[in-house]
């Protein structure tokens, strides 16, 4: 989604803004702009397209050399209005004295726009954001931008992060959080505002994540915080411990490739200190719900979107099998628009890498309003989901920059494996020996993922052969059926190839009609209970002329060799416990999508139309 950077301090502001926006490119955007105040005048440059276009615009019409020491920048992911220069942020009021950038949506913008137009305000863009600039102009009564902001906030509805400047109220930036994330960076005599930490990490590691309905006021002398009514908040800074280098490509061609290769490390970090293979016990310290509370639960609902929803489907298999609890999995965007059944004995598990996905947060609130207990599985410390859920199981994947989720997904699977064992222990549905075997398997996973990554060279060959195809079918059964969905999603997200994931047994009820010699079928066939059934499905696909790309585990390699023909491909990953196989089966699918997208010349890290965290409904 959109990205925001703001700066107040002694250094020239422009390079800080451009560099910060570049660090936020991964979030997805289609236009960009910056606004500076110098010599009491507001000056801005904007452009459709990527940041390089904005730099061209600035080169053609430079700002007065290095005179401004405060300003803000924005990358926009279009919602209201096309991605044009006019619609790019920042936006101004009629007099060009107040300027605003915005993430999220102002829901009542049409109503406000009508009112402001009737009062004589002139609108020049199609955006909802512009109403904020005009509303601030209307609410300006000579008592400063902050006072006008407090009044304007009473009129705005929706979920929004705002950053505001006024040429009449110098040396001050105001940031507002009402939903989408905002972080204030506290440097040495300089202060920053951003929508996400990577934008400012080169300058400071000391940050304050704004709470919902909170305002930050940053000036050359400090940062203050208050609520929407002007009541001051005392906020402590938090130190970001991850290395800025983790948000760099570290020699890899793309963030996605780097993040695929970080999975052994990320999985190890997620398991570390939480599982004892010797005793068979799991320790989830931030979970907040004690064993007595867990014993009261009689059903589980898992709420998530996209890739996180796929890990939720795997979670259903894990929790039902180990903890013997019925599990329902729903999309965040669907759950809130029905009248779902939940009560105090329901456990709602929300899964979200970013912790900021609007649909998932809305579903969490819906479940909580019905009395459900809640846990967030999340990768971002201090994000909304972690603040709103009763407890959290953090994935320790480090920052994920590639829009296509990889290491966040595998660590979500591991968090669910830990949680399922923990629930099962609390409910007395798992034997200690079984728990020990699973935790032993989790300890070994990082090494097995490293082995799975060795298929890379073979996958590159497969990608060369199949990258011209326009449709793919992914099949799996049981706990690996969600991995078929995830493989298909990865491919379509970054290569723009049409791909469908299906439970293999469903193929004969419709999708088999699509199979011909031009449609490769990716089949997930580990050593498990449904191995023979998958072989049957492979035969059905081959009988219709389809080429099959099979992912299996070592112990079934030979058996598959007898089934496959010269047109088919066999990818082998290590064996593990059947409940842990999804973590290994997904690795070749991530690599396959990556290499196909690369061959097709796609923008792997920032695929078209997509955003990293979807903070609008
Ligand atoms: C993953 O590759 C996708 N880009 C997307 O489906 C993502 O998983 C989804 O938007 C949910 O995001 P979250 O985990 O941050 O809530």
Summed up, what is this model?
35% of the residues lie in helices and 23% in strands.
Task: Figure out the total of helices.
Answer: 19
Counting DSSP E segments of at least 2 residues, the number of strands comes to 27
Coarse structural class? alpha/beta
Order of strands in the sheet with most strands? 3-2-4-1-10-9-11-15
Largest sheet, in brief, is: 8 strands, antiparallel
Which stretches are poorly predicted, pLDDT < 50 over at least 5 residues? none
The percent range for helix content is 25-40%
Label the overall shape.
globular
User: What's the mean pLDDT score?
Assistant: 92
* First-to-last CA distance: 12 Å
Rg from alpha-carbon coordinates = 26 Å
Bound molecules: 2-deoxy-2-amino glucitol-6-phosphate
Percentage of residues in DSSP E strands: 15-25%
Please, could you describe this protein's structure?
The chain has an eight-stranded antiparallel β-sheet with strand order 3-2-4-1-10-9-11-15, covered by helices on one side. A seven-stranded antiparallel β-sheet has the order 5-6-7-8-12-13-14. The chain is built from 19 helices and 27 strands. The longest helix has 21 residues, at 407-427. The chain is 35% helix and 23% strand. The model has no long low-confidence stretch (mean pLDDT 92). The protein is an alpha/beta fold and 617 residues long. The N and C termini lie close together (12 Å). The protein binds 2-deoxy-2-amino glucitol-6-phosphate (AGP). 2-deoxy-2-amino glucitol-6-phosphate binds at residues 305-308, 352-354, 357, 360, 403-405, 493, 610, 613-614.
């Amino acid at each position: 989604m959109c990205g925001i950077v703001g700066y107040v301090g002694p250094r020239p502001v422009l390079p800080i803004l451009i560099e910060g926006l570049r660090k936020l490119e991964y979030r997805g955007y289609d236009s960009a702009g910056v606004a500076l105040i110098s010599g009491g005048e507001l000056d801005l440059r904007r452009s459709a397209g990527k940041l390089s276009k904005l730099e061209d615009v600035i080169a053609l019409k430079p700002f007065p050399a290095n005179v401004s020491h405060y300003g803000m920048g924005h990358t926009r992911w279009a919602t209201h209005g096309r991605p044009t220069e006019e619609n790019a942020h920042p936006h101004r009021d009629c007099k060009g004295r107040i300027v605003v950038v915005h993430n999220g949506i102002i829901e009542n913008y049409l109503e406000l726009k009508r009112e402001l137009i009737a009062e004589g305000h002139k609108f020049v863009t199609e955006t909802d954001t512009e109403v904020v600039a005009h509303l601030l102009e209307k609410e300006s009564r000579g008592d400063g931008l902050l006072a006008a902001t407090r009044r304007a906030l009473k009129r705005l509805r929706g979920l929004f992060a705002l950053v505001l400047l006024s040429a009449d109220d110098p040396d001050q930036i105001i940031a507002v959080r009402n939903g989408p994330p905002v972080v204030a960076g506290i440097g040495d005599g300089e202060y920053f505002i951003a929508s996400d930490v990577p934008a400012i990490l080169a300058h400071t590691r000391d940050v304050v994540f704004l709470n919902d309905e909170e305002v930050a006021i940053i000036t050359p002398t400090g940062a203050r915080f208050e609520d929407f009514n002007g009541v001051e908040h005392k906020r402590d800074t938090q130190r970001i411990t991850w290395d800025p280098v983790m948000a760099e490509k570290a020699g890899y061609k793309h963030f996605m490739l780097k993040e695929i290769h970080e999975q052994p490390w990320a999985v190890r970090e997620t398991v570390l200190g939480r599982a004892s293979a010797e005793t068979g016990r799991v320790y989830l310290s931030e979970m907040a719900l004690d064993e007595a509370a867990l014993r009261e639960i009689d059903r589980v609902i898992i709420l998530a979107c996209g890739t996180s929803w796929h890990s939720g489907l795997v979670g259903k298999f894990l929790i039902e099998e180990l903890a013997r609890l019925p599990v329902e999995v729903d999309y965040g965007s669907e759950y809130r628009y029905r009248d779902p059944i939940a009560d105090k004995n329901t456990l709602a598990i929300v899964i979200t890498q970013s912790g900021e996905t609007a649909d998932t947060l809305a579903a969490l609130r819906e479940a909580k309003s019905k009395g459900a207990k809640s846990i967030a599985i999340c990768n971002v410390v201090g994000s909304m989901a972690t603040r709103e859920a009763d407890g959290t199981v953090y994935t320790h994947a480090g920052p994920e920059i590639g829009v296509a989720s990889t290491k966040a997904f595998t660590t979500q699977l591991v968090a669910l494996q830990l949680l399922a064992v923990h629930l099962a222990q609390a409910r007395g549905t798992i034997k200690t020996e079984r728990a020990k075997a699973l935790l032993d398997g989790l300890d070994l996973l990082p090494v097995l993922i490293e082995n799975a990554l060795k298929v890379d060279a073979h996958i590159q060959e497969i990608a060369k052969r199949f990258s011209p195809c326009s449709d793919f079918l992914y099949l799996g059964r049981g706990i690996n059926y969600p991995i078929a969905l995830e493989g298909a999603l990865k491919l379509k997200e970054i290569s723009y190839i049409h791909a469908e994931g299906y439970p293999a047994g469903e193929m004969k009820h419709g999708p088999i009609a699509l199979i011909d010699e031009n449609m490769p079928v990716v089949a997930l066939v580990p050593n498990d209970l449904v191995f023979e059934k998958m072989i049957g499905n492979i035969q059905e696909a081959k009988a219709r002329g389809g080429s099959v790309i099979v992912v299996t585990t070592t112990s079934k390699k030979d058996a598959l060799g007898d089934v496959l023909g010269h047109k088919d491909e066999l990818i082998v990953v290590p064996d593990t416990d059947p409940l842990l196989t999804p973590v290994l089966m997904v690795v070749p699918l991530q690599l396959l999508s990556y290499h196909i997208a690369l061959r097709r010349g796609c923008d792997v890290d920032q695929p078209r139309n997509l955003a990293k965290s979807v903070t609008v409904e």
